[in-house]
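stuck on this one:
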Amino acid sequence: MTPADTGASTTVDAAASVSSSDAPDARDSRMAPGGPGYRRMSLALFLAGVATFALLYSTQALLPLISGDMGVTASDASWTVAAATGGLAVFVLPMSALSERFGRRTVMTASLAVAVTVGLLVPFAPSLPALVALRAVQGAALAGLPASATAYLAEEVTPRALVTAIGLFVAGNSVGGMSGRVITGWVAQEWGWRIAVGVIGVLAVACAVAFRLLLPAPKHFTPGSLRPRVLARTVRDHLANPLLRRLYAIGALFMTVFGGVYTVIGYRLAEAPFSLPQGLIGSIFLVYLVGTVSASTAGRLVGRLGRRGALYLGGGTTAAGLLLSLAPSLPLVLLGLVLITAGFFAGHAVASSAVGKTATNGRAQASALYQSAYYVGSSAGSTVGAVAFHSGGWAGTVGVGLLAVAGVVAITVLGSLAARRQVANTPVRVFGLTR
């Protein structure tokens, strides 16, 4: 989703909002639980999610080792993460258009093929610029997965089974993002960062091959034209919507905090007074499991507090975690990471679900724009957070995060004021008369 790994949760909301109103039909030939092809399809997309996010964030837990091996600063090494997420952010919209013309399975297969090929070349990068370039290409290729997977499922799976099927894809995203970081941490501790990313590359190749062999051929896809004018008009309409703009900004700001913290945390834990080994640093990413819980409770939070209240709570929890992480105590730092992760995932889930509800047409493009903003925030957080760490230590990174949280709160307040003005200016009809 991704995002980081939770970026794919946006696609859950978009697809659910598109198809949840469809009535069940006994003659429906689409896949359903217990029916032919459903298990193969579910496993195929789960493995695609694992491969995508294991590759996307494969260098994040290894940045201290990359810095030491290549003799570069934290801010320089952070570009290996920012380039990949930036490539995905830029290409998710074009990839969604290509899938409309050439088919979902075709685009997903080609995307994984390119990404895993690049993944096998990454360990041999002779310099930081070469490594950053390879990672940018890899991120651009991976954009084809979130751009196509939801559309494939919406076309090939019955409406009742759609959310469950996409949930398995999202679970693959989370497992891939978390396990990729943990695996690389422990492998790198024994054999170095190049072997670690090579192991992830081999794992991704296995997932990609299994994906292609397992995924059923589409039966309900109808090719369309690329029609750039229609796409441009839809995108323009979404960007003209003030609420969608605010939601895109909130997603980007939340991810700025998250990307900055988890890009730099390895450096903080490798230094005194903690001096943790690389394997334990990689295991820190198990904290992501907290996000699974907080994201799943976001719906109940919105029910009790409203969307703005839930965003305030997510932002406040994130800010509290940032401040707590300043303590020179490992248990307090870990508790701070738990709060940051819980607040981020809750805020992201609230904002992404609101996009699907707000967009009345062109939901795929609305979702893609959110993902673009989300991964732009990831790239910005990785880069700015590392620069702040280089110049001001962990306190500098925390300062950047607090500014981003303040931005979330400010945007939410402005949205509340705009909604009140709109209500105040809305004419009221009484007995057919406007007053």
